[in-house]
Design a protein that fits this description.
The chain is of the alpha/beta class and about 140 residues long. It has a single domain, classed as Nucleotidyltransferase, domain 5 (2-Layer Sandwich). The protein has four helices and five strands. The longest helix is centred in the last third of the chain and has 19 residues.
């Protein structure tokens, strides 16, 4: 059984605005992969879901069986744990895509964690935006 702990975060400078995603994939105490990617103009919620999708795709590539996903987005955690319904049109497609990807794992838990415990993913998401904005200035 391949078990991974994954930290995800989406960031948006403005809402909507330039956005990025950050993903940290760990196995035990070892970090296997960091993902930092600019995703264009998006809302913060779209960035959060996009980070989740990047994480799930990467976990499938790494042949994970069990995932513990940590997010500081209370909305995303509660929607995926079916506490809240997904009502926003911009999110429904991403939610459905995430559900299809989640089906590829034996076991998944989605945990809402405090922002202070998600510093690595937050930094990667913010760096993606900064890199892109720096390109535009040059």
């Amino acid at each position: 059984m391949r078990e991974f702990e994954i930290y995800i975060d989406g960031a948006s400078k403005g809402n909507p605005g330039p956005s990025g995603v950050g993903v940290v994939i760990c196995q035990g105490s070892k970090t296997l992969k960091n993902i930092s990617s600019f995703i264009g103009q998006a809302t913060n919620n779209i960035a959060e879901y996009t980070a989740l999708i990047y994480a799930l795709q990467e976990a499938l590539i790494l042949k994970a069986d069990v995932l513990k996903i940590n997010t500081d987005s209370q909305l995303l955690a509660r929607q995926l744990n079916k506490v809240y319904k997904v009502r926003h049109q911009n999110i429904i497609g991403l939610y459905n895509q995430a559900q299809r990807l989640l089906a590829g794992f034996k076991e998944v838990s989605i945990n809402n964690i405090p922002r202070e415990e998600n510093i690595g993913a937050d930094k990667l998401a913010t760096e993606a935006i900064k890199r892109e904005l720096k390109k535009k200035v040059l």
